Amino acid sequence: MKLQLAFSNDQNEIEISEEWIQQLEELLQIAGQSENISSGEVTLTFVDDKSIHQLNKQYRGIDTPTDVLSFAMQDSGFEETEIFYEDDFEFDEVTTMLGDVVISVTTAKRQSEEYGHSLQREIGFLFVHGFLHLIGYDHQDEQSEKEMFNKQEQILLEAGLTR
After folding, report:
1. For residue 101, which of 5, 58, 117, 138 sits 20 to 30 Å off, Cα-Cα?
2. Which Pfam families does the entry link to (predicted)?
3. Is 129 part of any known ligand binding site?
């Protein structure tokens, strides 16, 4: 079994090539291996700044666009409502939904230009960042930020996405 990537492109600013999707699938496998996660599904959605701005405001209370958002499905936070299904609903025991990653290609393009690397590398960086959030990593303090960013760079390096 391997990690699965489902994606949708909900923006018209930048063409998302099949090559990019293949590279993101490879990044997902490398990231999963590095964290001993061999199965599950991640949904990736490409949006523009307007869409991610709305999501950021709605779900995080921050009234500005951002580069990437992650919505983990495996979190069981204190205030989350438990979902009950009817008895005849059958779960797919094989595939666990890890969560959703949403990337603003508008912001990714701007950041790639600011940092002086390719848009492909920036989108890869944001995707790995989002994936690590889905599996529990965070960067609330300097130590956890350093650990998370080191993991990201190692995964990107292994995939050949260097600066």
Report:
1. 117
2. YbeY (PF02130)
3. yes
